[in-house]
């Protein structure tokens, strides 16, 4: 079974890009491609988990496990801990855990839907970032199991920058993204860079979308530099 380690392994940096958008011609897909190009251009070995394209199952259930801790009552954390100790995850979950275990950098590319991540990305966290594998009691935030690694959110919105400002309709973008940035990414111990947000990406002109992609590529290169690449 894959195991997480905070120790920096020798050799080039490795990255995992987890992509959550169903349309391969979307702006978020362009963000994914730009991220991969920037990472590989910086010498980072890169793997992509394209959750929609790979048919990743979003719903956590007993189907996640080849082992059973308690046949009479399903408690997700108990089953995850048991599977972590007995190599009991099904292949889809194990594959994603192995990808994450190899990665020094974790990048998430997704659209903001209903104020949060798409269900398939939330399901990736629910199923893959399992108790006993990615966190345990006393192993969160600064003592998390992914300390020594770096994370970055790449987000597109339908709303404008003004709409995502303090006192306007949706509130400050930092507040909107807090559950993802703080309670998911930083929770694991990752050194999380400030999120990159492409505001109103479906509604702006081509030149502004191109500028977003240039800015995003630089943010990815900055992440590599921060990780020592």
From TrEMBL:
Its EC number is 1.-.-.-, 1.6.99.-. The keyword Metal-binding does not apply. Transmembrane segments: none annotated. It is an enzyme of class 1 (oxidoreductase). GO terms for molecular function: oxidoreductase activity. Belongs to the NAD(P)H dehydrogenase (quinone) family. This is NAD(P)H-dependent oxidoreductase. It comes from Nocardioides imazamoxiresistens.
